[in-house]
Design goal:
The structure holds three protein chains of three kinds. By secondary structure, chain A is mainly alpha-helical. Helices cover about 75% and strands about 0% of the residues of chain A. Chain A has two domains: about 1-85 and about 310-345, no CATH class; about 100-285, MetI-like (MetI-like fold), CATH 1.10.3720. In chain B, strand 4 (about 70-80) and strand 5 (about 80-85) form a beta hairpin. Classes of the chains: A mainly alpha, B alpha/beta, C mainly alpha.
Chain lengths: ~350, ~400, ~325
């Protein structure tokens, strides 16, 4: 069967799901009265106040659902997600501007979570019921039960308010005015402050950005490591009980080889799936974490938009995260098939 | 038993006791059994499910999984280097024995092969673990030959010298950092290709010996892509790749079709001649025993009831359980005969002789005292009060 | 000795469920051995007690909604530290934290149990149908759950919360039915809508697994009707993972609801809800100076501890179930 055929088959499944995503968002939007919905259809920043009745008429917002859906899909496929009251701009522009900030957090957290989570999970399973295992499990279940906003607040109070370390927001005021000021010579090549700082030759910007990243990354990492460790541990325990482990031992392989090559590879399979979905779903937790730390990213904006009942913003954001999630799932499935040859058969 | 002068003991299990500590209680899986295995013979271990034959096999290589624990006893392996008690070995020393001197093959081949690695890789593992030094030396020899061969250009030669250097470094110190480092770099990693090719050749050779058609293709397949019979051949290949002195087979044909079973049995017989290994064959099928084994031990509920050459057992079974087993083999024209009752649970074993509740010839003594093994005839041991199991000690 | 009289129906029933009783006995014995499980159970019991005794522990003002935290007409904006009048202190705008914690427990149970209960029921129904009948029905159901799964839970919940109108009219022909939803109700509805596919997927998977087991084939061969096969053979064996997930979800749902409240999307100001009470504490953190950093510790520490402990209790319980059911499943 092979990997290629599997990838193509999965791709074909992804498309209807994406269509379904748009359908769901559309259905949710139908719950809202037309004059609010009008913002979804705005092609550009509205200049006049009476633009709303015009929009309602133009897109038949009072009429049949099918026509509305058709019009809306046309806009979507052109990349137009509507106008956001709270962000004062087109939703698509806002997403494009704020995405790198959020992505930066994800980029730093993901490797930490995966590597630390897998390592601790394996160690915990191998030394089952010994002190290390108990300690890891306790810390893990505490981390899993912590509300992320609470952990964030506690860290803020302790590190920021009490110790005066790190900072809130994305950059300090000095760095912000340097990067975004009128006379700024700072070029945002990637949108990632850490990388741009190096590319612009301003290392202090990079350090400043890192300084502000520590707390959000820490909060996200702690909670997600807890989840990964649990799954890795149970998966590893199951794997260690399988028959092929006895066979591997009977060949004379030493403990490390058996654990790392045989048990772990099989145990990683469900964990990889979980990690992929977790990273895709990090947007979820980031809505809260960014709000707690006033970090200027997608999550923060989405939270504010929700409070202000800015419909296009929230729906646009939901659709964006939906697409990301589906894509991430697809990638995870492919990786899964790469690791476990049995899956390729279907 | 014509070759008596050449035969020596290869393996001796003395007073082995194994227990499993489960939630429902302590399972006394094996209680003080004595079995010996001669060099060059095929010893069968027969019994119903749950009698402890698999546990015996696993104990030889100390592979009994938790919650099982080997409580006491000795398993003496008599190699050319002397006698070793396998149960007293440390993990490191055990790893040298496993796969190299004593190998094991199992019942459901596709469950015992790791699904995420190719079949060829899994055979390679055993080879690489025990024979890496020889393999690397062979590769170096090949490299030397190529270097002396004037046909290769200068650039190629320098690369060959690099390869040789790497292999020599590994020979000196397998944990060398330089080696580990270069292993990871994509371009330089190619120096391993030689070793990989050598290994691949060896794998194909041994697969062919297992009478597997199209061996090159099979080596790259995954376990779930193979049929039961093929998978079992692969498992046997894994066991025999380092030419062990003893091969333990734990019901390898039980889950296979009858025709495939016949093929595998035939294969095992041939391989025994080719490789010269001794075999311990565990099964519940007396038919297989008759076909394959030289001597057989009959086990029941954790004890060995009878141990004798195959012909003896079939002609004159002494223990009531053995008699019951042989009678219960269905024959055309006869009624079904079975042994009354069922196998006891390992937690609540009957007192005295474990078989007495189901034994037609049980006496009061049988329910009180567990009999010792008695050598009734030369080479024929029985554990039963009928033959005086209460007075004599086990005569080795 | 032969029994001449017929066994009574009751003793027959007892004999039939004897193996399950034995398993439950094993379960409880196993649970009592692990300290973490005992702690989990203790925590849950503690909260149940608090919820049950709420009217006694924090008497509400008669005539008013007990879930609205009493607020004196001339209230102080700045949070007050714990005192005789306010045992846990006050949050912003002089909301009694002690009162909020006690009645917040009932709110938490309400959210957790209702959301999980309804999600479980709906998910079970759809999942059983999809799993048992398979084919087209199953495919449609899977696409549907796929779509809902395509969204991270909190974000979809957010979208639903702001979209669902608080007041709506349903035209029933002879009359128009006005549905009034409180803000918390909207949150709960959103969570149910987001949560049911999870259970559907789970039960469907289990049913598909159990469906292929031999005893189901045997039951069908004997002629059992579909519903009997489902109820008596398939469900009892497939339902265990659901139990674990449901227990863990009770804590998780409370966390998500608290998060929504924290963002301002949940209950209204002054409602006895833990998340709500923490959200205002943010305004009082940016002290900047080390000496003042912990000044308003009670505003975030106390509600936070309640949320954390509640979730922890259910998580420990769910974990205990999982640990116990695993060796049971393996023993089979």
């Amino acid at each position: 069967m092979g990997l290629r055929a599997f990838v193509i088959r999965r791709l074909l499944l992804v498309l209807p799901t994406l269509v379904g995503v748009t359908l769901l968002i559309f259905a949710v939007s139908q719950l809202i009265p037309p004059n609010q919905r009008a913002y979804l259809y705005m092609g550009e920043v509205p200049k006049r106040a009476d633009v709303i009745p015009e929009t309602i008429k133009k897109y038949h917002l009072n009429e049949s659902v099918l026509i509305q859906y058709r019009d809306w899909m046309q806009l979507i496929l052109q990349g137009n997600l509507g106008y956001s009251k709270s962000g004062v701009g087109m939703v698509s522009d806002i997403i494009r501007n704020k995405a790198p900030a959020t992505a930066e957090i994800v980029l730093f957290s993901a490797p930490i979570i995966i590597l630390v989570g897998i390592y601790l999970g394996v160690k915990s399973a191998v030394h089952r019921d010994k002190p290390l295992d108990h300690a890891t499990r306790t810390v893990s279940i505490i981390g899993y039960s912590l509300p992320s906003f609470w952990l964030g607040i506690l860290m803020l109070v302790f590190f920021f308010a009490y110790l005066g370390l790190f900072g809130v927001g994305r950059l300090s005021t000095a760095a912000t005015s340097y990067v975004y000021g009128i006379k700024s010579t700072f070029v945002q090549y990637t949108g990632f402050m850490t990388i741009d700082g190096i590319l612009n030759g301003q290392l202090w910007i990079t350090m400043d950005a890192l300084n502000h990243l520590v707390l959000p990354v820490a909060v996200i990492s702690v909670i997600n490591i807890a989840a990964i460790v649990r799954v890795m541990r149970s998966s590893m325990l199951e794997s260690l009980n399988k028959s092929y482990i006895i066979m591997a031992k009977s060949k004379g392989l030493d403990k490390n080889e058996v654990i790392n090559k045989h048990a772990r590879r099989n145990a990683l399979i469900p964990v990889i799936t979980l990690s992929g979905m977790m990273i895709a779903g990090m947007l979820n937790g980031l809505v809260i974490t960014e709000t707690v730390f006033a970090f200027n990213g997608l999550g923060n904006w989405a939270a504010q938009a929700a409070m202000l009942v800015d419909l296009p913003a929230v729906l646009g954001f939901a659709m964006f995260s939906g697409v990301i999630f589906v894509t991430a799932n697809f990638i995870v499935d492919v990786m899964y098939a790469y690791i476990d040859p049995r899956i390729r058969l279907g | 038993m014509q070759k008596q002068e050449q035969q020596q003991d290869l393996l001796e299990i003395n007073d082995l006791k194994v227990r499993f500590y489960t939630y429902e209680g302590v399972v006394k899986a094996i209680e003080g059994i004595h079995i010996d295995l001669q060099r060059g013979e095929t010893l069968g271990i027969v019994g119903e499910t749950g009698c402890g034959k698999s546990v015996t096999a696993l104990s030889v290589l100390s592979l009994v999984p938790p919650p099982g624990k080997i409580e006491s006893g000795q398993i003496v392996y008599k190699s050319e280097d002397g006698n070793i008690d396998l149960l007293s070995l440390k993990e490191r020393e055990l790893q040298d024995v496993r796969g190299e001197d004593i190998s094991m093959i199992f019942q459901e081949p596709r469950a015992y092969l790791n699904p995420v690695y190719t079949v060829g890789y899994q055979i390679t593992e055993a080879l690489l673990h025990h024979r890496s030094k020889q393999m690397v030396e062979m590769v170096i020899e090949g490299l030397d030959q190529d270097l002396q061969n004037g046909k290769k250009g200068a650039v190629k030669k320098s690369f060959l010298r690099f390869e040789k250097y790497m292999y020599k470094k590994w020979l000196k110190d397998p944990a060398s950092l330089t080696y580990a480092f270069f292993r990871k770099i994509p371009l330089f990693r190619r120096f391993r290709n030689r070793l990989k090719n050598e290994l691949r050749e060896k794998i194909v050779v041994i697969l062919k010996e297992m009478r597997i058609p199209d061996a090159e293709r099979v080596a790259e397949m995954y376990p779930h892509e193979l049929s039961g019979g093929m998978a079992q051949r692969v498992v046997i290949a894994t066991g025999l790749v380092c030419s062990p002195t003893l091969l333990i087979c734990d019901e390898p044909t039980t889950n296979l079709d009858v025709t495939v079973q016949a093929q595998i049995l035939h294969l095992i017989r041939e391989l025994k001649k080719e490789f010269g290994s001794s075999i311990a064959y565990i099964t519940h099928d007396m038919g297989v025993v008759a076909e394959l084994c030289d001597r057989v031990a009959v086990m029941y509920a954790g004890s060995v009831c009878e141990l004798a050459p195959v012909l003896e057992i079939f002609k004159t079974p002494l223990h009531p359980y053995t008699q019951g087993l042989l009678e219960s083999i269905p024959r055309p024209g006869c009624d079904f005969k079975s042994i009354v009752g069922s196998v006891p649970s390992g937690i609540n074993l009957p007192s005295g002789c474990r078989f007495h509740p189901r034994c037609g010839k049980a006496s009061d003594l049988c329910s009180r005292i567990k009999p010792h093994p008695v050598e009734v005839k030369k080479g024929h041991f029985v554990e039963c009060h009928i033959y005086g199991g209460s007075e004599n000690e086990y005569s080795a | 000795m032969i029994r001449m009289h017929k066994e009574s129906r009751f003793s027959e029933f007892r004999k039939r469920i004897a193996p399950q009783m034995q398993e439950i006995g094993f379960m409880l014995k196993r649970m009592s051995k692990s300290p973490l499980s005992v702690i989990g159970l203790a925590i849950v019991v503690f909260f149940v007690a608090v919820a049950a005794l709420a009217p006694v522990l924090a008497p509400p003002i008669p005539g008013k909604n007990p879930f609205m935290i009493p607020q004196p007409p001339a209230y102080v904006v700045e949070p007050q530290p714990p005192s005789a009048k306010y045992p846990f202190g006050t949050a912003e705008n002089e909301y009694d934290l002690y009162y909020g914690m006690i009645w917040g427990t009932i709110t938490a149970f309400r959210i957790g149990l209702t959301v999980v209960g309804i999600s479980l029921a709906v998910g079970l129904l759809f999942g059983v149908i999809a799993g048992y009948y398979g084919g087209v029905v199953d495919e449609i159901m899977m696409r549907f759950t796929d779509i809902i799964f395509a969204f991270p839970g909190l974000i979809l919940a957010m979208a639903l919360v702001i979209a669902i109108p608080p007041v709506s009219y349903v035209n029933l022909g002879f009359t128009i039915w006005q549905i009034n939803l409180g803000k918390l109700d909207i949150v709960m509805i959103s969570l149910v809508l987001v949560g049911w596919p999870g259970y559907t997927r789970l039960i469907r998977g289990e049913i598909m697994r159990v469906k292929t087991e031999d005893y189901v084939e045997a039951a069908k061969a004997v002629g059992c009707s579909d519903s009997r096969v489902i109820m008596r053979h398939v469900l009892p064996n497939a339902v265990y993972p659901l139990l674990i997930v449901a227990t863990l979800d009770i804590g998780a749902m409370v966390l998500v609801a608290a998060a929504l409240s924290f963002l301002g999307l949940g209950s209204e100001a002054g409602f006895a809800d833990w998340g709500r009470l923490i959200s205002t504490s943010r305004n009082w953190i940016y002290g900047g100076r080390a000496s003042e950093a912990f000044k308003y510790w009670y505003t975030f520490l106390i509600p936070g501890i309640f949320i954390f402990t509640f979730t922890l209790g259910w998580n420990l319980l769910g974990d205990a179930f999982r640990d116990i059911l695993d060796p049971m499943l393996r023993r089979r």
